[in-house]
Amino acid sequence: MKTEVISTVRMEDAGTTLGAELIKNGELVAFPTETVYGLGANGMDGEAVDRIFEAKGRPNDNPLILHIAKKNDVTKIWAHTPKLAKTLMDTFWPGPLTMIFNKADEVPYEVTAGLETVAIRMPADKTARLLIQKSGVPIAAPSANRSGRPSPTTAEHVLADMDGRIPLILDGGPCRYGVESTVLSLVGEPTILRPGAITREMLEAVIGPVRLAPSILNPLGEREVAASPGMKYKHYAPDADVHVVEGEPKPAAKRIRALYYDYEAEGRTVAILGTEQTMASYRNLNAYCLGDREDPESLCANLFRLLRDVGAHCDVILAEGVDTKETGLAFMNRLLRAAGFSRETV
Ligand code: AMP
Ligand code: MG
């Protein structure tokens, strides 16, 4: 199959019209959102949804998110309306918040991986919304990477993983947030299953106490059941091994320098993912800046791009860990999984 790439910066109308035709025909389309690129199919067509799992190599017990173009579209895919939902939708939609509800009968089990619950999001990205609207159906979409790899934040990254596997990629340029949506379960106590740009602090300001799933910063225990099935799989892994050093900027940078020379002495090629606060300590070393520790959104925006691009050219990545407040939590959740929880604190 030939994979066509259309720039929606230049040809948004033509690109989304062609994309919608493909979606209506049961085919796959990769498209930009404000979080990461999604790999979409008609969310009401189980056979079309099966193609997503095939193209990604994703285990089919890992459910997908249904993307809608207007708030009212939820009524066709959820079974009942938790009271908090309306407040949350009015505050955070469109935007990077996915909510989990009991599903309507019409939602195929291919989307929910056999669960009675469904994950729903209304993206803010204009191209994404136009594509959904023209398709006339909710679009089921996971991130547009091969399963296990870092999520794509540019069309080039989608092409690297999906060339020849899907007919169309809509290229809207780099994604604004660079990490996937916050996943909040509203079935039972409000619980964050996956942290994202809509933070626990932001949610609590609107609806009061919100729990965090225990596996957000820890590997899933052997006997633990995954609240969000995606959490049990190896995730976000670049080509290189990743090791995380947590702590204050100065001691962390000192430890990373020492490790850098140790690995080099073993004949391995090393790269550092540092922060604005520490880059001066890595002069003359192979180091890249993730962003500003005081602005964790900047770290999120660069993480997956650097894991892919830097990871392709070295054996080991040494990365700085940061505080888990606000979007620091989303950053650490992804980084620790990319590292397979190889971590130390100085
Ligand atoms: P991705 O498609 O890569 O953004 O992953 C979608 C995420 O949403 C995965 O971590 C899924 O496990 C999670 N998810 C989707 N539907 C549900 C659901 N019904 N219950 C719990 N988690 C879900
Ligand atoms: Mg994913």
Work out the count of structural domains: 2
Which ions and ligands are bound to the chains? Answer: adenosine monophosphate, magnesium ion
Cα-to-Cα separation, first versus last residue: 50 Å
Instruction: List SSEs in N-to-C order.
Output: EHEEHEHEHEHEHEEEHEEHEEHEHE
Radius of gyration: 20 Å
| CATH class group of the largest domain | Alpha Beta
Silhouette: globular
Largest sheet: 11 strands, mixed
Largest sheet, spatial ordering of strands: 1-8-2-3-7-4-6-5-9-10-11
Low-pLDDT stretches: none
Write a compact overview of the structure shown.
By secondary structure, the protein is of the alpha/beta class. The protein contains ten helices and 16 strands. The chain has an eleven-stranded mixed sheet with strand order 1-8-2-3-7-4-6-5-9-10-11, sandwiched between helices. Strands 14-13-15-12-16 form a five-stranded parallel sheet, sandwiched between helices.
What does this structure look like?
An eleven-stranded mixed sheet has the order 1-8-2-3-7-4-6-5-9-10-11, sandwiched between helices. It has a five-stranded parallel sheet with strand order 14-13-15-12-16, sandwiched between helices. The chain has 346 residues and is of the alpha/beta class. It has two domains: 4-216, DHBP synthase (Alpha-Beta Complex); 241-345, Rossmann fold. Helix content is 31%, strand content 19%. α1 packs across α5. It has helices at 12-24, 46-56, 83-92, 109-112, 126-135, 155-162, 200-207, 249-265, 296-311, 328-338, and strands spanning 4-7, 29-31, 38-42, 65-67, 97-102, 117-121, 139-141, 168-171, 182-185, 191-194, 211-212, 241-246, 270-274, 287-289, 316-320, 343-345. The protein is globular. β9 (182-185) and β10 form a beta hairpin. Magnesium ion (MG) is lined by residues 142-143, 151.
